[in-house]
Amino acid sequence: AEAMGRIGGLTYLLEATRTLTTTSLDMKEKPGIVTAIAKYHMTEIARTILNDSFDIHAGRAIQDGPMNYLAKHYLGIPVAITVEGANILTRNLMIFGQGATRCHPYVLKEMEAAANPDSEQGAKEFDSLLFKHIGHAMGNTFGALGAALTGSRFVKANMSGPTQRYYKDITRLSRALAVSADFAMLTLGGDLKRKEMISARLGDGLSYLYMASATLKKYEDEGRQQGDLNFVHYAVQYCLYNAAKSLNEAYANFPVKYVGGVLKGLLFPLGNHFDKPSDELSVSIAEAMMTPGVQRDRLTHLCYIGKSENDSVGLMENAFLAMYDVKPLERKLMKAAKDGKVARKGLLPDRLQQALDAGVLTEQEVEKITAADQLRYKAIQVDHFSHDFSEVRTDSPKKSHLNPAA
């Protein structure tokens, strides 16, 4: 359930990030920082999801062949993380290195004012911006401290419902990030770009807050689908936990030690109380992913599912749906075994015949279970070949060992 829950929660997060980022591109915007965030984090999260998928599929994912629909994607991950800007470069230099000035309400304007050929006019503009900058920084500092001491209870949020607290937490951490950025630029100056790990961690804070915002926007845009709420909880909690963790790691490793201590004392005076998604949440997501319906369809609407009976993805999906459909019949069979009407162990065809003879199952129900189990058996096969690899023998006839405990 842990791996399945993580796959579901992070997939929702990826889709939310993709949707918001591409929407800005469709609007003819040029969001350089946002696309860098999306490129780095989406490819890294994809790597995590693929690793979890390999764990779930076990040996099936290792043996390359027609039945393995994961191997090619796994082999493509190194390409995704290095092409169009290596991830390590994107994280260490681009996201915060460029975002610190481009996303700040005053720094870029101050730089432009300082470079104004009209020195007198530039000085006036710079002084005005500087005082606004100081006021902005002070407001963020006291706002972040107050929110930290009160658990964001009094932070204003224009949303209601089960996600309201997330808007408050995002506001709190956004203020903390703004204060951290001001302190970093003030104390490190041009050295900030060369302190790549500090820049990377501050960039992570920015990135996770962006992705958390994207998740909440997706939830609102799609009409607050209640079936998606656990996925929203997982994705946002994952982002908030990692955003706070990144900021605290930046403070712990800040080159000017007392500045790191001051930042931690101001912005996290009671420590970091943001938690990872709970086990209960992971289990609920795993159960939702194993239940056919509109919620699962929303999550997988862009997934390719082939129609051919030999398509490995389509076969797995058909087997899943068929096995889910016979769950009530399996429960009848289990009850009959408990009552002594059907053997507890043995080959499935023999036990089904016993259930048919005892009147536990009808002939149509027996056929339905048999068809579903045949699909299941075919779907879980691991690719295998002749000794010289000249022949695929995955579907070669063999003695059936159909599930004896069904």
From TrEMBL:
This is Acyl-CoA dehydrogenase. Coiled coil: none annotated. GO terms for molecular function: acyl-CoA dehydrogenase activity. One of its GO terms (biological process) is fatty acid beta-oxidation using acyl-CoA dehydrogenase. InterPro entries: AcylCo_DH-like_C (IPR036250), FadE_C (IPR015396). Residues 101-385 form the Acyl-CoA dehydrogenase C-terminal bacterial-type domain.
